[in-house]
UniProtKB/TrEMBL annotation:
InterPro entries: Homeodomain-like_sf (IPR009057), HTH-type_Tx_Regulator (IPR050624), HTH_TetR (IPR001647). Residues 4-64 form the HTH tetR-type domain. Keywords: DNA-binding, Repressor. Residues 27-46 bind DNA. Pfam families: TetR_N. This is TetR/AcrR family transcriptional regulator. It comes from Bacillus changyiensis.
Length: 198
């Protein structure tokens, strides 16, 4: 087995176990066992559990594949692009709401998990903030705190992901992703296109 294949098997095993059991309850021994590798082999590739969590869970949510797939479709039309980003993000993560709850619970109790989990919004916010800065440079949107705006944008999407299966959710939120995305994009478009410099 090549080093790359071994590494991929460990990452896939870790992804499954971290999602099923959470960070604290998943041991590196269990991951090595599921991947069919020696425990020492796992440490040679990743050194510790936090590095493995970063490469499996964090990179899975904010992978270059996720960003590259979106980047090549961006047109610098704010409405179209925010709609695309929101839809792709929701479709990728809508069935992971139970995982979100597991990690949030653990993050509240474990500073290490909290630090690792916070890498996810950082990658997302950096991506969207850079896009908005580019639009501003091209005089297509007004100025603003693009990091904060990006944080708020993904926070709304994450709220939808986390709560959409609660029965009471449907009293205040639309049933369809499309309807939610339209309202969300309207909100941010109104803010970002206010006083556009021409």
């Amino acid at each position: 087995m090549t080093k790359q294949l071994t590494r991929e098997r460990i990452i896939q095993a870790a992804l499954i176990l971290f999602k099923d059991k959470g960070y604290a309850a998943t041991s590196t021994r269990k991951i090595a066992e599921k991947a069919g590798v020696n425990h020492l082999t796992l440490f040679r590739h990743f050194e510790n559990k936090s590095n493995l969590f970063r490469e499996s869970v964090v990179h899975h949510v904010t992978s270059s594949h996720f960003f590259d797939g979106i980047k090549e479709k961006l047109t610098e039309n704010l409405r179209e692009d925010l709609t695309l980003i929101a839809k792709v993000y929701l479709e990728e993560n809508i069935d992971k709401n139970s995982v979100f709850w597991v990690y949030l619970t653990e993050a509240a109790q474990d500073p290490e998990v909290s630090e690792l989990i916070m890498e996810i919004p950082k990658h997302l916010n950096d991506f969207l903030s850079a896009y908005l800065s580019k639009l501003h440079d091209h005089k297509k949107i007004s100025n603003g705190n693009f990091q904060m705006i990006s944080n708020m944008f993904f926070s709304l999407l994450n709220q939808y992901i986390m709560f959409h299966r609660f029965p009471a959710f449907h009293h205040t939120f639309p049933d369809s992703i499309e309807e939610f995305v339209v309202e969300c994009v309207d909100l941010f478009q109104t803010k970002l296109e206010k006083d556009v410099p021409f």
